[in-house]
Description:
12 helices
Amino acid sequence: xxxxxxxxxxxxxxxxxxxxxxxxxxxxxxxxxxxxxxxxxxxxxxxxxxxxxxxxxxxxxxxxxxxxxxxxxxxxxxxxxxxxxxxxxxxxxxxxxxxxxxxxxxxxxxxxxxxxxxxxxxxxxxxxxxxxxxxxxxxxxxxxxxxxxxxxxxxxxxxxxxxxxxxxxxxxxxxxxxxxxxxxxxxxxxxxxxxxxxxxxxxxxxxxxxxxxxxxxxxxxxxxxxxxxxxxxxxxxxxxxxxxxxxxxxxxxxxxxxxxxxxxxxxxxxxxxxxxxxxxxxxxxxxxxxxxxxxxxxxxxxxxxxxxxxxxxxxxxxxxxxxxxxxxxxxxxxxxxxxxxxxxxxxxxxxxxxxxxxx
Length: 359
């Protein structure tokens, strides 16, 4: 009520209503409500339809980790903006307010052995993806001889992996909202194991590239998964340290990969790079199944396939253009054509992206 409405004014209004209208307002009184934090909504329509609107408010409260906070000072209350005697039922406007409070803090986050195991299990997937990519770079002369291919062709052994990783990582944020964390991990490892088996036994270079593509998918799934686990489960005071550990895992793969590849190739042959990786990824699968837990509530998120496809096409076209610029002139179709197509696809992706409402 406005500040000028005091107890005396209310008493006068009740008396005048009784004299002029014959109405009994003796039960009407002034209450002071402490607003605090509230959830409110504009209800349109009959007062009898309010329960459905209040149900929506309860759903909103639960979704945002809030709780109802009723007391003698904090109550459900309504503000009527329409005169029911002059307004049609469907046009009535009512503000409904429910007092709320923050829920109690969830269990304190701790860096437990199980959490460390989960981080290392997911980290092994990304580690081996980068590790194998750098290890095979020293085997190019041998691969060129064994498969009777050119140097232009053999570079796709690693380029294809990086290209697939770059296309999978952007969509991983949508995948993790729809699929349970452990299933994402198992999917990534399964694809990785499939690729290793193909790379170990294949007698054809084209099939080797297929295996490398599957390896890129598995690595693209595992790389963001490791950081998602760290950000979701590690306490803030240790977040920087654990993020450093995650970065170190990838950095070690880049540093030790070529050395490892050279030693294994000289002592055995290049296929043993993938055999040893298969042994390590199986261990990671077993530890990950035990230790990885769900890190976020699942949502029905619509995957934007058009946005993802345009981004993938842009990356492929730009990569083809840049890799052929040394062999063809800039104005040729293999260079300029793919460059233009890549830029167009990139612009389409930016249009799909639009403004970021929830960064």
